[in-house]
Amino acid sequence: MRILLVEDEKPLANAIKEGLTENNFIVDVAYDGDSALSKIEIEESYDLIILDIMLPKLDGITLLKKIRELKYTMPVLMLTAKGEIETKVKTFGLGGDDYLTKPFDFRELLARVHALLRRTKDVKTSVIKIEDLEIDTEKMIVTRGGKIINLTKKEYQILLYLCMNRGRIVEKRELENHLWDENSTPWSDTLRTHIKNIRRKVDSGFEHKLIKTIPGVGYEIE
């Protein structure tokens, strides 16, 4: 599952991203409304948006309105320091799906994220299929040729991100930015080791190798 987090307070954004990543979500972060809108228009495949109301350049209320005007239907969880009933009513009226007032416990945020995603699971499939490789994103089960593949949490996150970006080269730096906190970016050897282990588990014994290395650039799922 892929989430866009729109939050201008970087320490809070980093903490939320780290917590969601540990729970096997892929998280993109935007620190202002304009860059968030650009990401949405380019990506178009976010399963959920976590949106702060108080943002620079383009505030959260205006961004929410634009998201719905552009016919994007993914659920939106609004964050704000304001608890006024008028703000809540306006948010829901513009197409917001849930509302969380700061400060909050991450466990409550996570529970609300899961609840919103459950509402849409009947509409969007939870299984990603690439040839004979299948990833059940709800149960976090990976199989190839019907055989279960046992991956570590980080290996699963890397494989899932590559599969969700099938058909394009994912640069090493992009992988690192999405899957590690900015304060704990891994050495390049760490990522290479993970890729090596994933390739051994996913491609070994199969004629068609799904994971392709682009020397000096990154990786691609063919």
UniProtKB/TrEMBL annotation:
This protein's record includes keyword Transcription: yes
Feature: DNA-binding region: 125-222
GO terms for cellular component: cytosol; protein-DNA complex
Record-annotated OmpR/PhoB-type domain positions: 125-222
Residues annotated with 4-aspartylphosphate modification: 52
Keywords carried by this UniProt record: DNA-binding, Phosphoprotein, Transcription, Transcription regulation, Two-component regulatory system
Record GO terms (molecular function): phosphorelay response regulator activity; transcription cis-regulatory region binding
SUPFAM superfamilies in the record: CheY-like
One Pfam assignment: Trans_reg_C
Single GO biological process annotation from the record: regulation of DNA-templated transcription
Keyword Transmembrane belongs to the record: no
Domain (Response regulatory) ranges: 2-117
Protein name, as recorded: OmpR family two-component system response regulator
UniProt lineage: Bacteria, Pseudomonadati, Caldisericota/Cryosericota group, Caldisericota, Caldisericia
